[in-house]
Amino acid sequence: xxxxxxxxxxxxxxxxxxxxxxxxxxxxxxxxxxxxxxxxxxxxxxxxxxxxxxxxxxxxxxxxxxxxxxxxxxxxxxxxxxxxxxxxxxxxxxxxxxxxxxxxxxxxxxxxxxxxxxxxxxxxxxxxxxxxxxxxxxxxxxxxxxxxxxxxxxxxxxxxxxxxxxxxxxxxxxxxxxxx
Length: 180
Ligand SMILES: CC(C)(COP(=O)(O)OP(=O)(O)OC[C@H]1O[C@@H](n2cnc3c(N)ncnc32)[C@H](O)[C@@H]1OP(=O)(O)O)[C@@H](O)C(=O)NCCC(=O)NCCS
Known about the structure:
Aminopeptidase; 7 strands
């Protein structure tokens, strides 16, 4: 498998990363995983990516093969919230193309985005994200890196999605080098 590097989003990447956000292939259909369920259920505007490029409290990293540096295969975007209370990182979007999944890339991206926004992972930080209730792969992934899944669903968080795909869970917890 080709080596992959992780680097900050560049303005020249935006169009490709924006399209990657909407064209991540869907998982195989199962009863718990309807084929029509969207993986990233929100439309991400150009302004969303501009904010990732310019706001110091936001970051977006992309992963690309060393031999194809201009064709990203994965991305993560996140925001650092310093108040109220303890600093926390909100994971906004995360996606890895299927051919690059299950080799630790998402974990690597989470660790790198924490490092960029907050500092070395060793210190640990509170991390949270919203995940579509139908996205069992992502829910399992977040659980396995130490985040807890809220007991109650957030109804209609993704209002623009078709009925049956609008609910989400909050996943949250402290992440450090041991959990990742
Ligand atoms: C959820 C998602 C981001 C995970 O990405 P990923 O790169 O496959 O994640 P990782 O490789 O870090 O971890 C996945 C599994 O691979 C395993 N793994 C990690 N490193 C590995 C390696 N070097 N070799 C083999 N397996 C490895 C992990 O143990 C993990 O298994 P587990 O979840 O049973 O613990 C990916 O499935 C995805 O893009 N899904 C579609 C988009 C999506 O749902 N995004 C989240 C919405 S909020």
